[in-house]
Amino acid sequence: MAVAQDKLHPSARAIVDQLAGLPPLPTMTPAEARGRPEPLAAAPEPVASVTARTIPGPGGPIAIRIYRPKDALRGGLIYFHGGGWVVGSLEGADGACRALANRSRCVVISIGYRLAPETKFPGPVEDAYAAVRWVADNAAELRIDPTRIAVGGSSAGGNLAAAAALVARDRGGPRIAFQLLTVPATELSSKAASHREFAEGYGLTSADMTWYGTHYVRSAADADDPYASVLRADLHDMPPAFVITAECDPLRDDGEEYAKRLAELGIAARYKRYQGVFHGFMGFPGALPEAAEAFDDAGKALREAIG
Predict the structure, then answer these.
(1) Per the domain annotation, does 63 fall within a domain?
(2) Residue 130 structural domain
(3) Domain count within the chain
(4) Exactly one of 208, 249, 253, 254 is catalytic; which is it?
(5) pLDDT in tens, 124-179
(6) Residue 6: inside a domain, yes or no?
(7) pLDDT digits (tens, 9 = 90+) for 231-286
(8) Of 68, 155, 243, 288, which sits 20 to 30 A from 280 (CA to CA)?
(9) Active site (annotated) includes residue 155
């Protein structure tokens, strides 16, 4: 066991060790991976309403869920779930969306984009942008201000949120007001130190990231595309951002570098690293104080930016 594993808090180490009992992701097909049991989450928080519907997408209807908190403000967060572009679902993101809606008092629109390998890059990015266009075009129906729309997501969902903001900028709109990226994947061919230090033994592994990438992109050229590896994009005129990272996460350095590059361009962007936790720590707000803190911080950031 690597010495660096001692950086995990004992409660986080216990969760990671429990998750290690699941079959390794690279030994599975995408269908088998989607059937893996998800970790038990805390009881879902009540919100004022949850509405399920579909919206038009480039490959057919896209399923969405609309979460409205009590005393909702006029901001709206378009949320993309995690899962390496291959797994994950609206249901899996339900707890996070409820928590974000309640803490931000913004309407959260969760997007069920198409998954790889059935839909490879750039299909999920086009779904993400279609969702942004739909929310902006239907802001009055959603009772949100079209100038107060944020994009956000976890891991691969954070990647899609940033990519959607890039596409919106490049195609002349809609204008995105804010990015909320939690443990985002910003570079598909990363050589960052965190990928080496936390390559295995912390939940998400370097082998997992290779497996995800193999299913998501068709070629090295795709992996280098700035809509796939958003860290390679020209980030001028991008929205402000709050990036949440975990100390013991292979993706940590890439997420923090994304926030730093935005800030270097004069964009109001910052990151916060949560110590002693792993990539998927926000899935355990009842067990990890850092997860509850991260949701509180995210809610505050959204209220200040778009509330």
Answers:
(1) yes
(2) 42-306
(3) 1
(4) 249
(5) 999 999 999 999 999 999 999 999 999 999 999 999 999 999 999 999 999 999 99
(6) no
(7) 999 999 999 999 999 999 999 999 999 999 999 999 999 999 999 999 999 999 99
(8) 68
(9) yes
Tokens of 63: 């399923």
Nearest CA among 99, 95, 89, 34 for reference residue 63: 89
Quick check: is 150 in a domain?
yes
Q: What is the pTM of this model?
A: 0.97
Task: Classify residue 59: in a domain, yes or no.
Answer: yes
Q: Which of 166, 156, 116, 127 is nearest to 254 (CA)?
A: 156
- Round the CA-based radius of gyration of the chain to a whole number and report it: 18
Q: Tell me how far apart the alpha carbons of residues 6 and 134 are, in angstroms, rounded to a whole number.
A: 46
Query: Which pair of tokens denotes residue 247?
Result: 């100390």
Catalytic-role residue among 104, 154, 155, 190: 155
Bridge partner residues of 150 (DSSP): 77, 178
Q: Looking at residue 82, which CATH number applies to its domain?
A: 3.40.50.1820
Average pLDDT of 109-136?
98
Burial 221-248 (b: 16+ CB within 10 A, else e): ebbebebbbbbbbebeebbbbbbbbbbb
